Amino acid sequence: MADELTIGSLLKSKVITPAELSAAVGAYLMDPAAADFRFGEGHVLDLATAVDAHEPSRRALADPKATAAFKRTMVQTAIILARPSKG
């Protein structure tokens, strides 16, 4: 069942902390090719794949007029919607 959970549901159930989410967003913004990010409790998410899979985030990141804050929010949204693996 853990494979079916999103980062958002794990955050809501306090398995993943807001600080971990913020660290994941920061890691992606520092290196958009970033791959595996390890959250607590052994959850792993390929950040680059998660953001690439979320079309609105891809568009925002490609938009030269988008602010840094908006881009950060869109990356966070993509990560929240993503489904990590356990391991």
UniProtKB/TrEMBL annotation:
Instruction: Please indicate which superkingdom the organism of origin belongs to.
Output: Bacteria
Q: Which UniProt keywords apply?
A: Plasmid
What's the protein called, per UniProt? Uncharacterized protein
Q: Which organism is it from?
A: Methylobacterium phyllosphaerae
**What phylogenetic lineage does the species belong to?**
Bacteria, Pseudomonadati, Pseudomonadota, Alphaproteobacteria, Hyphomicrobiales
